[in-house]
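TA notes, week 10

Several of you asked for a full example with nothing omitted. So below is the full record: structure tokens for the whole chain, then the designed sequence directly under it. When grading your own attempts, check the secondary structure regions first.
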């Protein structure tokens, strides 16, 4: 999204100067509290210095978030819906049965037989982007990367013993490198936050490629509903990881916009898709949330049997975290660290 300047983007995201969010951040060098305007901090972090010691308030894009714990960025809805899913009678037994009878091995074999495994000799560009995302998040293990032919702009993660990320080729048509890095960071976030087991279960139930397509035939309704709901809420945690990996808000929002509207030649020839009106669209949705009918709609959308709707909702939650959550605290070096780096 390099066509929109910092100034244009700031004006689009925070049109009313009175409403520009402000945050108090502690300098990691001298401990002094600094009052910073969120737009400047988010869009031009390298220009933010501590008022007392003059050193950089934020880590540079190249500095890793050393030993960051996934709890540092886990969304509360992800945590609560996973707890609800795990508490459902029959779910732990189902997980055990599936993993011992089919497990991630079946998915890995499917990848090896029908996609292209990436490495130093095969799509090294893609592997380099994954490595950059892994470095940024200080993610300890190296998942296998597969490229799969598909017109859809999508990526999938599975596995706990030998985690894997599958990038659908359509994604590379739609996104630039920073945006792809954001997607790979999103997928690493799923693994980091230990979504691997339950996403593997969902994939196995769906027969591999259709994600949630056939899962309904296997599960009782409450179980199905709880699994869909958690799957969707887990996206909010992973979106945060994507932003922490690329540290470029316009790239993370650009990915979501392109997931919603595509970026095919037919679209590109006609008009340049702009982030500003799309963000306004998400803000309109956020305002609706304040009215009570939205709760019913939210519940319905959360359990819908589709793979990627609800994108404006993700935009809204990501912006909310940037403005009022701990995104900037993390980038200024203040975050929860993993107790055991190996088990991060
Ligand atoms: Zn300082
Ligand atoms: Zn995801």
């Amino acid at each position: 999204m390099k066509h929109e300047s910092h100034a244009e983007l700031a004006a689009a995201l925070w049109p009313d100067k009175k409403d520009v969010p402000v945050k108090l951040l502690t300098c990691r060098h001298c401990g002094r509290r600094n009052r910073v305007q969120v737009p400047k901090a988010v869009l031009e972090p390298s220009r933010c210095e501590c008022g007392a010691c003059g050193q950089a308030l934020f880590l540079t894009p190249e500095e890793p978030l050393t030993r960051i714990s996934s709890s540092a960025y886990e969304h509360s809805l992800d945590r609560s819906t996973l707890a609800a899913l795990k508490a459902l009678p029959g779910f732990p037994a189902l997980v055990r049965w599936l993993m011992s009878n089919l497990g991630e091995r079946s998915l890995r074999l499917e990848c090896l037989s029908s996609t292209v495994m990436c490495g130093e000799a095969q799509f090294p560009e893609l592997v380099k982007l994954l490595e950059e995302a892994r470095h940024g998040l200080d993610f300890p293990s190296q998942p296998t990367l597969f490229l799969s032919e598909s017109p859809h702009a999508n990526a999938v993660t599975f596995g706990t013993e030998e985690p894997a990320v599958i990038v659908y080729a359509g994604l590379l048509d739609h996104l630039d490198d920073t945006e792809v890095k954001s997607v790979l960071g999103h997928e690493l976030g799923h693994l980091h936050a230990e979504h691997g087991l339950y996403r593997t279960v969902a994939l196995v139930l769906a027969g591999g490629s259709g994600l949630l397509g056939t899962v309904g035939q296997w599960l009782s309704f409450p179980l199905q509903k709880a699994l869909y709901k958690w799957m969707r809420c887990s996206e909010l945690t992973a979106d945060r990881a994507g932003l922490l990996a690329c540290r470029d808000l316009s790239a993370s929002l650009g990915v979501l916009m392109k997931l919603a509207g595509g970026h095919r030649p037919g679209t590109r020839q006609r008009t340049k898709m702009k982030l500003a009106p799309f963000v306004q669209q998400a803000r309109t949705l956020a305002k609706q949330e304040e009215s009570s009918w939205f709760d019913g709609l939210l519940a319905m959308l959360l359990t819908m049997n589709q793979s990627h709707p609800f994108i404006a909702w993700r935009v809204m939650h990501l912006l909310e975290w940037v403005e009022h959550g701990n995104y900037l605290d993390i980038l200024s070096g203040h975050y929860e660290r993993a107790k055991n780096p190996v088990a991060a």
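The radius of gyration is 20 Å. Use that as a sanity check on your answer.
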